[in-house]
Design goal:
Rossmann fold, alpha/beta, 37% helix, 334 residues, 16% strand, two-stranded parallel ribbon, 7-stranded parallel β-sheet
Length: 334
């Protein structure tokens, strides 16, 4: 059993990671500015605080063996691709990771996982849905689609610099469009699968929904359980990464919406409208993670959408729109 720190433990991926680590028998301290919105935290300790604060960052790393750095601000096309939040998100991400690494290594922590993202790949490789390229080779000649993307790449290099200079172990993964129950399902931070589930759940049979995309825009979406499994395998391996963690099913946004309608047994019209969107297409080369970890997604997109729609439809029927409030009690450590 290890003592593990999960930064961002109140968020979607972080809260699922805490549950997985607890099932494995580890002692877990979670840190976030918010408690999990849709369930009680499974953490042994939950520190309600801001990791940009150096004093807090220095405190939470005490007596910890490993860190999962999943804390961040930017999520969903409504936030990530409007160019309205780059300064805020870039500043926050840099502060969180600088504090985590520096105070963590001073406290004697030997292993860190950093959750990077697909946004670090060159924009010009993701403009044509018929000719996509996001291989795991170092994407240093970047033409990023935001300043936040360039900051994310810098943070990757920072982790590797700490590994080289201080002897800590790092594991880095590019997470591609993770979705599932207990994720944000309304507002600007909602990812496409959850947002589409909400729209379908709220719309009567024969109605119409608006979708931010054209009919050709493609992407891939990975169910949360598969993501957690891949991250755990990476963390327990001897390979530092970075590796892509994503679904191998590349689909149009329209196809995702149509699959959700089929799950809901509804026939709804789609009206494509201009709006924040990542790129015309995004895919990745997954040979590296197969070679190093023997991992490939074990759940088809349809299965993940079924579980997500069931959960979102329940939220629509019994809840007010997500406000980020805490449901129930948890441990807060001063």
């Amino acid at each position: 059993m290890k003592n593990i720190l999960v930064n961002g433990a109140g968020g979607f991926i972080g809260s699922h990671m805490v549950k997985r680590l607890k099932r494995e028998g580890h002692w877990v301290r979670g840190v976030d500015v918010n408690f999990p919105a849709f369930s009680l935290t499974a953490a042994d300790e939950f520190v309600l605080g801001d990791l940009r604060d150096q004093q807090l960052a220095a405190k939470v790393v005490r007596d910890i063996d490993e860190v999962y750095q999943l804390a961040g601000d930017l999520s969903g096309a409504g936030c990530a691709f409007t160019a309205e939040h780059d300064a805020y998100a870039t500043h926050n991400s840099a502060m969180i990771n600088l504090n985590t690494l520096e105070y963590g290594r001073k406290a004697g922590i030997r292993k860190f996982f950093y959750s990077s993202c697909a946004c670090i790949y060159p924009e010009y490789n993701q403009r044509d849905p018929e000719n996509l390229k996001c291989s795991d080779e170092p994407p240093y000649l970047v033409v990023p689609n935001s300043d936040y993307s360039l900051e994310t790449l810098f943070i990757e290099r920072l982790y590797f610099a700490y590994q080289r200079d201080y002897g800590v172990e790092v594991r880095i993964a590019h997470l591609h469009n993770i979705f599932g129950p207990e994720g944000t399902w309304t507002g600007r931070r909602a990812k496409a699968p959850a947002a589409l589930c909400r729209k379908v759940a709220e719309t009567p049979d024969g109605g119409e929904i608006e979708v931010w995309s054209d009919a050709r825009q493609t992407s891939s979406f990975l169910y949360i359980d598969s993501c957690i499994e891949a991250v755990r395998r990476l963390m327990d391996s001897s390979f530092p990464g970075p590796v892509n963690i994503r679904s191998e099913e590349t689909v149009t946004i329209s196809a995702v919406a149509e699959a959700i309608m089929d799950i809901a047994h509804k026939r709804i019209r789609i009206r494509h409208i201009p709006g924040p969107a990542a790129l015309s297409g995004r895919n990745s080369d997954d040979n590296l993670i197969r070679q190093q970890l023997g991992w490939a997604p074990d759940r088809p997109l349809r299965e993940g959408l079924e579980k997500t729609y069931t959960w979102v439809a329940k939220q629509v029927s019994v809840s007010e729109p997500h406000t980020g409030r805490r449901l129930g009690s948890a441990i807060a450590v001063a």
